[in-house]
Amino acid sequence: MLRKETSQSYQEFNDDDCTRTSYQENNNGVEQDEADSVALPDEDPADNNPLPLAFNKACLKNVFTALLVLIYLLLTAVAAFLAYQTISDFMEKLNHPVMSVSYKEVDMFAPPGIALYPGKAQLLSCTHHYHDHILPHGSGRKLQEGDCTTEEIIYTGPYSNDTTRALVVRGPTDVRNRELVFLQFSRNETGEDFSAISYMLFARYSDMEGSSDKAAFMMECEKNYSMWTFSGGFRTWVKMSLVKTSAKGNDSVEFRQESSVVKYNDRRPQHEQAKELFFVVFQWRDPFIQQVKDIVTANPWNTVAILCGVFLALFKAADFAKLSVKWMIKIRKRHQKLKSREMNQIS
């Protein structure tokens, strides 16, 4: 009886201990839950959520990409301006070529034509000399056979209907030996205020000599060449130089001259001084022909290369800007997706 009661009481004691133990465990679980629930609001949610850090990185990437896009847009504007400036410079150089001057040395010149308009004056002498040495001459010397090659041409002036008489003389050729042509004219006193004889130089004497219509040839020469004069009572020394010009497919020949004048000391008797004397010398200045040509400095291949580089840079910049915008849109969509997910978690 005693053992039965003892076992029964032991069982009751164990039941009470289990009940108390389970009750304590339940109370500890509830307290732990309450402690967790109380401590949860005090924690920083940013320590457990990496989203703001990712947002900051994405923001920096967006700013950097936008800055790159602006830089490439600026470079694109500079490239476009460079292309415009290159085309403008090419057209400017193409429309305004540069004059190039070169000199060609020769031993002999083609004999030029010297057209003199003596009017009422008479040719007294025409001789060839060399090395700048002119022999003494007499005041009444007549023109000798073989001294000069001359031809008289009568034609109507291009700017008036008056008849013009021209005495065309074959000019000097040997520039190395300083060949010159010396001419002397005589004219009676007239009522004119100024006394002078006009002359004109043209490129080749052979052109006039071989022309079928010499009068028309002289009319064209008078239109295209300049006229000069030399005065009476002086010896005029004319030094010629030849200039050939090639511009826009048109070739032209121009004479340039340097002249010096020396007074003639008239020692004739008083009754012969009524006839005025004219002296003129024609000689080449130097053995060089000046050649003037138009040179287009615009290089089309250089311009094409620059334009190709500019357009390539434009296409590359446009491609980069397109990819950058797509990347920015993608990053923005991803950020919006993460933000919406966070809002769903909070709710």
Walk me through the topology.
Elements: H1 2-39, H2 45-48, H3 51-95, E1 98-105, E2 113-117, E3 122-129, E4 150-156, E5 163-170, E6 180-188, E7 196-202, H4 205-209, H5 214-224, E8 227-231, E9 234-247, E10 250-263, E11 275-295, H6 300-346
Parallel strand pairs: 9-11
Antiparallel strand pairs: 1-11, 2-5, 2-7, 3-6, 4-5, 6-11, 7-8, 9-10
Helix pairs in contact: 3-6
What is the CATH level 1 assignment of the domain at 107-295? Mainly Beta
> Which fold name is given in CATH as the topology of the domain at 107-295?
Acid-sensing ion channels like fold
Given as residue ranges, the uncertain stretches (5+ residues, pLDDT < 50) are: 1-49, 138-146
Query: Describe the biggest sheet?
Result: 6 strands, mixed
The average pLDDT score comes to 77
* Overall geometric form: rod-shaped
| Shape-level CATH architecture of the domain at 107-295 | Sandwich
Rounded radius of gyration (Å): 55 Å
| Fraction in helix | 40-55%
Strand share of the residues?
Answer: 25-35%
Question: Which structural class do the helices and strands define?
Answer: alpha+beta
Number of strands: 11
Order of helices and strands: HHHEEEEEEEHHEEEEH
Subcellular location: Cell membrane
Family: Belongs to the proton-activated chloride channel family.
Transmembrane segments: 63-84
Protein name: Proton-activated chloride channel
